[in-house]
Amino acid sequence: MKNKFLSVIKKKWLRSAVFTIILFAIIIAAYVGIIYGIDKVNISDLDFTKDKIYSISQATKDKLQNLDEDITISVYNMYEYVTDFAYKYANVNNHIKVEEVENLTAKKDWQNTYGVEETSSFLLIKTENKQKILYDSDLYTIDYNTYEQIDTTEEAITNAIIDVTTNVKPKICFLEGHNAYSTDYFQYIENSIYSEVNEVEHVDLLVKGKIPEDCKTLVITALKEDITEKERDLILKYINNGGELLILLDPNIDNIKTPNFNKVLDQYGVGVSDGIVLEGDTSKMMSGAPNFVISTINNSSEIVKNINMGLNVCMINSGKLNIASSEELQEKNVTVEVLASLSDKAFYRTDLENPSQTKINSDEDVGGEPIAAILTKQIGENTSKMIIFANTTFATNMQIRIDSQYYMYAIDLYNNEDVLLNSISYLTEREDNITIRKNDETVSTYDVSEMQLRIVLGVIFAIPVFIVFIGILVWWHRRRKK
Fold first, then answer.
1. Hey, which bits of 92-184 come out as E strands?
2. Cβ–Cβ < 8 Å for 191, 199
3. 250-306 per-position pLDDT tens digit
């Protein structure tokens, strides 16, 4: 009898053990299956950061919205986060496919064409006819002011996609020869213009003898001396043929005589003041400095029409625009759209020896005066547009001291870079590129809230404990029934 009882117990124990093993096997198989399925369907990660720094930006979505050409992003030997980010593009547009390359054995042509090796790390973005390779070093840059590494993965991939799907790159020409600022000060904006899939060329008209025929926009920055008559005539010819200009001028505080250049500006009925403007409205100045003027770009302007928020520009030691009367503009066949204006409390100063940060007797009220504008001139069947800012500094990578320890580049203040790049996009007739770009210099970390932490801990610990508890109740209930 005793042996029979022991035999029954052993059988029950054996059945329970087998049942437990099978149950664990089912749970493990389900877990592996779910992970495998998620990996295969490539479900997008959830991004809880305020600025969505781990998501595809709206700027990229706008640029790729109308993409109708098949693109393959091949990923080889890259960090996992780069591969994950590549898959985000496939979720933005179904013409984009991602291919993970395990080895280069079947890609011998790549080794010959691109010089890649087994130890290389790269992305290959390709269409049927064009391709571009991005190495891991192309996905970041260094801020040589702080020596911090800045991730540019999205910018690099997006611009590579645009590059391989764009047949013609607009050429942006910077006028050289008489500049008050060296070309080093415009390195950042030039790199950004180039990254937006444009060509950039420096043009000395006395050397080259002409403005390139494929120049889509001529950029003229603050001058230290007048241009020559020959240069003037070449620019006037460019205007008469429908050429576009981006003008960045500082106030003429040194009273430099520029009759030749003034004739260029006179074609549009505009000029820049000799003195500087100062803000009296503390909400329109930066860090309590009235010479750091903050202005919101006109919401109805062409350079912000695709953006559902205002863009602020911060000009430093800016002048004001002197725009001709309505009658004079009409005679010149010019229409004006004001881009940015001063507040009602702004004032104008020509006595620059006076350091006062508040208005003095010799200052002039200039509330509402323009500091940036779009001027459109009709010349027969041709139309020439000029976007002019009464400041150059805001477009440079000049270091601006924010406090005793922190500096920023002028172009990084507020939306300075976006305003400039959108101006270029407008002048080159690429309105689909008018947007707000993700700030690659913003480094954010994600800290979970107390509620989110409870949910995570609940998933990790509470659910397994709950399952065990239910199992015990079931076991106890069956035992009582017996």
1. 96-101, 122-126, 131-135, 140-143, 148-151, 171-175
2. no
3. 999 999 999 999 999 999 999 999 999 999 999 999 989 999 999 999 988 988 876
